[in-house]
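Quick start: what a row looks like.
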Amino acid sequence: MLPPNTQHFETNLPITFKGLSFNVQIQAGIRPESGQVFATFRSIDPNTDLPPPADIGFLPPDDGMGLGQGHIAFLVRPKAGLPSGTEIRNIALVDFANGEVIATDQVAEHDPSQGVDPHKQALVTIDAGAPTTSITALPAQSGPSFVVQWSGHDDIGGSGIASYDIFTSTNGGSFGPWLLATTNASASFIGVWERLTRFIASREITQEIPRVPLHPPIRALPWRLLEPWNYPPRWLNYRLAKVR
């Protein structure tokens, strides 16, 4: 992992493969003028200052079992003002030792004239809005068992709400979990006479992070980018009291 606030990073990593030791020279960073992330890996035999045999390098030929596959993962902060649902499609340009440059979204790895396949692109979707939750107002009086209802809303194009966490507090004490990761919108609660019960609802967003295989054997991670938020708690006070 690169140190924070780094635009350029270099290091050497010693590796031994099939009994041969060599160094991998790594350069990585970002080009501020274009926003392009780059990484270069060079396998060098320290005894000869030349690359090791082709079948022994840092990324050996793919054997169909994943030996020659690699991936790069990165996180970036979204630009301010992008609406939810904005799609950013990422690809990698792979330059092997023979000078051939291959885009990871090419239909045919060695024939760019056949065009691109959008399914091979690492899709990033912006989620700029914070979901909100609320608990439906309860009746003024009830028996010891009553139904608590809650709901949530996310902006158009957002990740959506996957589940809810419902917490309760008794007589002003600390909140503790009542229901966690529930996909329901209501549940029955059994209270205790003359105790003040408070309810608060929070939500877990839907955040899919699939690992999408790309060809040639390079992998990227598509993410839903989430801007930080502070959401106000939504709670209701409810006291059970005997009707006189």
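That is the whole record. The radius of gyration is 27 Å. The first strand starts at residue 8 and ends at 17.
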